[in-house]
Amino acid sequence: MTLSNFLADELQNKQQILQLIELAKTIKNHPADYANALQGKSVAMIFEKPSLRTHVSFDIGIAKLGGHALYLGQQNGKLGERERVSDYAKNLSCYADAIVARVFSHDSITGLAEHASVPVVNALCDLYHPCQGLADFVTISEHFDDLSKVKLAYLGDGNNVSNSLMIIAAILGVDFTLVCPAGHGAQQAMIDKAQALASESGSKFMVTSDITVLGQQDVIYTDTWISMGNEGAQNKAALLETFKPFQVNHDLVNKVGASKVMHCQPAHLEEEITTALFDDENYSVVFQQAENRMWAQNAVLVSLLAGV
Questions:
Q1: How many CA atoms lie within 13 A of 29 on its CB side?
Q2: By the 8 A CB rule, do 256 and 217 touch?
Q3: 20 to 30 A from 113, CA-CA: which of 47, 145, 195, 269?
Q4: pTM, 2 dp
Q5: How far, CA to CA in Å, does 120 sit from each of 15, 59, 225?
Q6: Is the pLDDT score of 260 beyond 70?
Q7: pLDDT tens digit string along 167-216?
Q8: DSSP secondary structure string, 185-228?
Q9: In 3D, which of 218, 226, 269 has the Cα closest to residue 248?
């Protein structure tokens, strides 16, 4: 597998994504075999946005591979303000073997990749969450032997998570339905991208604001209705009322026949998902997703730095 960076979901083809999924599961099942995969390697981790799972899964995951992670937090300011993104990238390339960046703008990711002489990994931006998306499909593959037969639906706010999910689904040939309230869907450019990829793979891709047309599904996915940093929005009450019909609960799961429910966390319980369903181990795989973040990211780093 040849990877130079890990920036956006559509930059990997079907074979590369499937290989990353299998490598993630192999590392997960045989971690000792990869204990020295990143020996002598250092990874600089830029975090413009706060994080629990991304920070911990990268930091501990890199340690499990024998590497060293350096956390660069919000005290350094927004990329491009204190110093140019190009300077940031060139300086870090002098010291680190790879750069992981969780940023506000995708432009920051592309700027880092353009000017860095080491691989860059997108740990989240405004358009994509490719590490989350990869981990999610690792999780789905652990429950469904043939991904091409899976029907996956995302309910809620069209955001970076749903963008990555629908693009990976389209590449892999997974039927995908995006269900968002009117005015809260994905950007048209992202929808067009997913539609074109679905046409190539032969999968079905549907976008709707009418939850009543949601047919049989295998997996239901949801995310917070109010994005990180907007929790104090003045129109929060109105937003919650708009999204209320799109809540994921036992009634919905039973209606569509789904066997698994996913959430990337943090969850706002009793808003986008009920507490009972989130904690229901017969359906919920949310903590399996969280664990698989580490294994999926390790697969990306091993591919980038160890040539596997």
A1: 8
A2: yes
A3: 195
A4: 0.96
A5: 21, 16, 29
A6: yes
A7: 999 999 999 999 999 999 999 999 999 999 999 999 999 999 999 999 99
A8: S--HHHHHHHHHHHHHHT--EEEES-GGG----SEEEE--SS-T
A9: 269
Q: Helices 85-95 and 106-115 sit at what angle, rounded to 10 degrees?
A: 50
Q: How many CB atoms lie within 10 A of CB 127?
A: 21
273 bridge partner residues: 248, 269
CA distance 37 to 306: 6
Tokens of 267: 């969850």
Active centre residues (catalytic): 102, 129, 132, 223, 264, 293
According to the model, what pLDDT value does residue 93 have? 98
> What domains can you pick out in the chain, each with its CATH number?
5-129+290-306 (3.40.50.1370), 132-284 (3.40.50.1370)
Radius of gyration for the alpha carbons in the chain, expressed in angstroms and rounded: 19
For the segment 7-30, the average pLDDT, to the nearest whole number, is 98
Query: Within a 10 A sphere around the Cβ of 115, how many other Cβ atoms?
Result: 18
E runs forming strands in the chain: 42-47, 68-72, 98-102, 120-124, 151-155, 175-179, 205-208, 219-222, 260-263
